[in-house]
Amino acid sequence: MQPKISSFFNPSSSSNAPPPVSKNEDEELANWEKKEHIIVNTYKRRAPKSDGVSLDGSKESLSGAVKKPTSADLCLKPQLKTLNKKRSYAQFHLELGQSDFLLHTCSTCGIKYAPGDEGDEKAHKTFHKDYTLGIQFKGWRYERVIHMPCVEGGRIVLVLDCDPPAQTNKVQQVVKMMEIELGTGWIFHKLCKVYLFISSQRIAGCLVVEPIKEAFKVLSGTVDERTHVTSTKKTSVNSATLQFGEIMLQREVVKKGSSVNCPKILDGNHNGAIFCEKETMPAVCGIRAIWVSPSNRRKGIASQLLDAVRRSFCMGFVVEKSQLAFSQPSSVGQALASNYFGTGSFLVYKPDKLAC
């Protein structure tokens, strides 16, 4: 049937007249016309051009060519932008002591970050500033300020465990910063009192104190020998003389010995053995931990915090220096105690690891 229909609509090129149609073919064509047929037309949209002209040269309206974004497309745009973000590392050389290109350890704050990544650079900058200058502090509406006559350009605030969450949460943030240098899991518990030194809207220092009953006295000779040693020793080992005509040059080796009076040693945490007396002595308050931000050290902040503890730890009287005790101080803590008491003999105690 189909070849006959095709031959009817497509006559041969030899003659313009249609071919003769037989009687049977007329009947089949009449039957085909009587039946119902479904004709399906399919249209395909061409890709729109910037000038609004289709591929065949006809002009199309911009409203029909541009597809309006749906709500689903708008919701997916931020997610696609985040997923397609690629990290770029603008570092082409390894620094001294750096193991790979991806992570760099800051020599001051100790944090590891990826140089060249915008997020890591910003996080490191914020943490580095909090570590060196102190944690940001906007202030509280009700503060327990310890009035000290010698505090200049700052104030000392006392925080207890019963204070509002805003204050206790800030104390936990400071304790985490202290744990970077002093170790984790022992600095703070619920019976402690926390003294914060506030300067320029930052917490520049912190002292954690607890009540105690007894402590041990340090033998003065073990500390005096370590804290009052000269920081530089000159020796003439392997000295040599060089002569150029009438000019003579003599070589002399200068050997430096470590001492806690040296600023570089004070910045570190160097533990050592402490020799104490066997008998215990009565004590009132124990200095569990004390910390000052690196840029504010050697400014007398630690001594001011100790004075504030003596004035406010007990109600009604001032605690004597002989009733203060330090919790296993390092060489830096020993130097601080010796300078504060004016002697190498002071009290120490071993703190208990209570739950925070």
Automatic annotation (TrEMBL):
<keyword id="KW-0863">Zinc-finger</keyword>
<keyword id="KW-0479">Metal-binding</keyword>
<keyword id="KW-0808">Transferase</keyword>
<keyword id="KW-0862">Zinc</keyword>
<comment type="similarity">
    <text>Belongs to the acetyltransferase family. ECO subfamily.</text>
</comment>
<dbReference type="Pfam" id="PF13880">
    <property type="entry name" value="Acetyltransf_13"/>
</dbReference>
<feature type="domain" description="N-acetyltransferase ESCO acetyl-transferase">
    <location>
        <begin position="282"/>
        <end position="349"/>
    </location>
</feature>
<feature type="domain" description="N-acetyltransferase ESCO zinc-finger">
    <location>
        <begin position="91"/>
        <end position="129"/>
    </location>
</feature>
<dbReference type="InterPro" id="IPR028005">
    <property type="entry name" value="AcTrfase_ESCO_Znf_dom"/>
</dbReference>
<dbReference type="Pfam" id="PF13878">
    <property type="entry name" value="zf-C2H2_3"/>
</dbReference>
<protein>
    <recommendedName>
        <fullName>Protein CHROMOSOME TRANSMISSION FIDELITY 7</fullName>
    </recommendedName>
</protein>
<feature type="region of interest" description="Disordered">
    <location>
        <begin position="1"/>
        <end position="29"/>
    </location>
</feature>
<keyword id="KW-0012">Acyltransferase</keyword>
<feature type="compositionally biased region" description="Low complexity">
    <location>
        <begin position="1"/>
        <end position="16"/>
    </location>
</feature>
<keyword id="KW-0131">Cell cycle</keyword>
<keyword id="KW-0539">Nucleus</keyword>
<dbReference type="InterPro" id="IPR028009">
    <property type="entry name" value="ESCO_Acetyltransf_dom"/>
</dbReference>
<dbReference type="InterPro" id="IPR016181">
    <property type="entry name" value="Acyl_CoA_acyltransferase"/>
</dbReference>
